[in-house]
Amino acid sequence: MDRRYFLKSSGITLASFGLMSVAPSFLHQFANAATVTDAFGKKKILITIFQRGAVDGLNMIVPHGESEYYNLRRTIAVAKPNQADGALNLDGFFGLHPSLKALEKFWQSKQMAIVHSTGSPDNTRSHFDAQDYMESGTPGVKATRDGWLNRVLQTKKSEHDSPFRAVALNGQIPRTLVGRAPTIAMTNLSDFAINAGVYTNAVQGGFEGVWQQNAQSGLGETGKETFAAVNFLKKANPAQYKAENGAQYPNSQLGRSLLQIAQLIKAGVGLEVAFAEVGGWDTHSNQGGSRGQLANLLRDFGQSIAALATDLGKQMDDVVILTMSEFGRTARENGTRGTDHGHANAMLVLGNSVKGGKVYGDWKGLGESELNEGRDLAVTTDFRDVFGEISYKHLGNKNLDKIFPKYSPSPSKFRGIIS
User: Fold this and answer.
1) Strand order in the sheet with 95-96
2) Domains in the chain and their CATH numbers?
3) How would you classify residue 140: left for phi > 0, otherwise alpha for psi between -120 and 50, otherwise beta?
């Protein structure tokens, strides 16, 4: 048995082997805290949700006030508001896809904002490159070793940092969290608890016993700290927290991931950054309009996010949910009633500190002269300006020159999304 096997078997992955830098402080806080929550104090939290595969932002956030939208999309356009299966009107020009009905109340209560025509200054249509650029925060630069969210953690440290300050509900550490700051990936809290229990019951002395027996086979000091973190999470027992306020999570990958993020927040484990993802957005054919393939994906997406925000309730004072996708899709539908790889897209931002009820960004339009390369919605807001504003205003990290090297978004570029 070696450390890598143990971590895999326990349903937990620790990146960067970085617990060495936080363990002494963490263990001291944990040992002297009356409760798990007392160990780390109140934290601002960012939850990021990646729509992998490039969601069609023009059907997610429908520009129903522009006639060219309907000319370009004869079979897949979402009907105007107040028509059968029509868009949910937002401001007289934009509307939500009807499958996002669960999010409408957050728009109406001004807890949700939208940033349209946002994306990368790099024109790549490669999923791999575009995702890499968005997650690294360095468009056009492939040599960046760490992710922008990891740099957020690297540049804002305190003696009260938890080893669980960054958690991905994922099978592996996502690109955006790779780097020197310690991060954790786990696929399922319940599986983690069960697997952890196997080791605890089977070995005299619990995890420390496993460590002592295997100290010579590669576990060492980092292994001991790993066991301490495992036992910490067991004590916190996030799985004990049930959905509140009438929240109903879909029984889907995203729904389960967001439920577990809510449980981690309620357990007070010192979470600051959480990551979840959902795929399937590469709708080259049979995309559908108000109904169909995209509509089904959006329904799960909207219901999952709505459940999370409802479940957290007042705790959304300290939480911002941000959605993103690597690029948008072509303005014109293709010959197989789908859309191809495009450019600008739309982001959702949700939280009690969000200046919601507004679509942010400069809308150039869908006329041929306004389209990027004559085919895509043009980018008018660099995604780093959105990331930067949330880092600066919500997380309180003003080290933007280090988070976004060679770009340095400044408050003058912010859209005013966060109060």
Assistant:
1) 61-62, 95-96, 88-89
2) 46-180+254-413 (3.40.720)
3) left
